[in-house]
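#struct-pred

JT: dropping the chains for the assembly here, can someone run the whole complex?
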Amino acid sequence: MTFFIEVLVGGLLAGVMYSLVALGFVLIYKASGVFNFAQGAMVFLAALTFVSLLEMNWNFWLALLVTLVVMVGVGVLTERIVLRPLVNQPPITLFMATIGLTFVLEGLSQMVWGSQPHGLELGIADVPMEWLSQKWNINISKFDLFAAAVSGLLVAALALFFQKTRIGRALRAVADDHQAALAVGISLQHIWAIVWAVAGFVALVAGMMWGVRNGVQYALTFTALKALPVLILGGFESVPGAIIGGLIIGASEKLAEVYLGPYVGGGIESWFAYVIALLFLLVRPQGLFGEKIIDRV
Amino acid sequence: MLYREAGQFRSTYAEDMQIFPIRQDRIALMLLLAVGFVVVPMVATQYWFSALLIPFLIFSLATLGLNILTGYAGQISLGTAAFMAVGAFMAYNAQLRIPGIPILASFAIGGLCAAAVGIVFGLPSLRIKGFYLAVATLACQFLVLWTINRVPWLTNHSASGVIAAQKIEILGYTFDTPASKYLLTLSIVALMALAAKNLMRSETGRAFMAVRDMDVAAEVIGIPMMKTKLLAFAISSFYCGVAGALYAYCYLGTVEPEAFVLDISFRVLFMVIIGGVGSILGSFLGAGFITLVPIFLNLGTTFISDRFDIEISHALVSNMELITFGGLIIFFLIVEPNGLARLWQIAKEKLRLWPFPH
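RK: done, full complex below.
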């Protein structure tokens, strides 16, 4: 039983990491209807910039700030160069453009910072917590809890930002109805730039967490692929969906790997999340919290 | 300028509905095929065949397959590479386990198996569409590669999962030189492209397009949704499967499952987008373009490093390739979202009037 709980909690905490990446997708999809495939590349770019600055002996906060500036810059430039000329194109075109953007970002970040893997250290050890393992014999990493706390904070901050600030309200208005938002004087272009900048910030947080766990390397870009099942499970338009979807995927993936994996030869983590999401979609095509799809002819 | 179709009257329905209604188009196609079958094998070098022409043709076929699904039937798929993998590995198994089977039959078996897998993974398309569907087809990508890696029967118990494609032999003639492999690929691709062109003017093709344009409306006017969507997945996967088999037999020779990673799916999707969504010609243009870009980029960097005596590292070249690739895609989407096929059409329309545009 303790083993089950350990696996379950480990999975839930891993799910939090997925949610972090999925959040970035949701933000952009909500505000602009763009399915931003480049989120993984943004995570990679943020982590790589941050870790490279740290390795040049920069101050932690200064490095954080500069990376944030870089991510905001990337966001604003993306809006200006890629999205603005593509206004009014079908969603698939925008999706393809973000795949193109993925390549550009991957190439650029490796060209500037080199492609060798880095280790990232935030001062929180990735070791099991002692009192938990002594008292209940459950091994849960301190860092996992830290990551969960950070993402909790992030979600709270985002919720506050969306609910209480003027920009947040404008964001929600744009997400609700582009034309109506334009009609009441909200500048779409500003809002999109802001959304991409916020997504860049989320990417930075996700990149730091994933960087500590797996090292900062090219494989970070594949975190995007991990986040996709979370997205379709939770619904593209929902922030809570991203969180809960992440938890479900993380937990079921780990449980399946432990209890089901040995029967089929292991390694099922690569696709299990997708199959869950797929089965789920057969029942609820819009995901857990997605907006109901209504077809009008 | 080049030609006008004035004076070509169609007096029967058969004439009106033929695949290439304009005489000059027919002549141009014949010329193109003649060049492909006769002139190219005479002038091309070994390198041309194996680095350029064969991959171009194979990817054209895969692009054609995806274009049938995405461009004509409107269903997005990111599982192209998986269908290709199924085609390659099942063709290998057919050749291995069925004694005396002709190689073309095992290609067809590869394609049919891919079609079966395509139908299974097309099932979600009945309920979901758009991005949800795209992500769902990713499941196919991961599941198929995992299965090939895990089920030793599929790779004939080879320890590393690598299979060696058998000899290609048709009617006692062995296709072992690049030129002969090129001719084989070209014949298959030309036939299947013609079939696709024909399919798209048939009832099935029009049903695909109706589903693409608005599926609810299509259903209302009596197009069976399930049959049409699944058929689109099946035909598309069949094309991809044959392309995969050709990729294994005529291009790679020895195949590992990792030859069919997600990147290949994306590459084919780019070919569709850059070539032109919903265009047979566009599939070829897109495949040609994407195949040529890395080669020209390579030539360019070697030229610069020779000329200016700068050492350009391999990593820099591959990063530059990524950036150029991504940049080109964005550029194309912005400038001409309908792809090269549309550019070609515009050029043709302009040229009809040239040099007297008024």
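JT: nice. The mean pLDDT of chain A is 81. Chain A touches chain B through 50 residues (CB under 8 Å).
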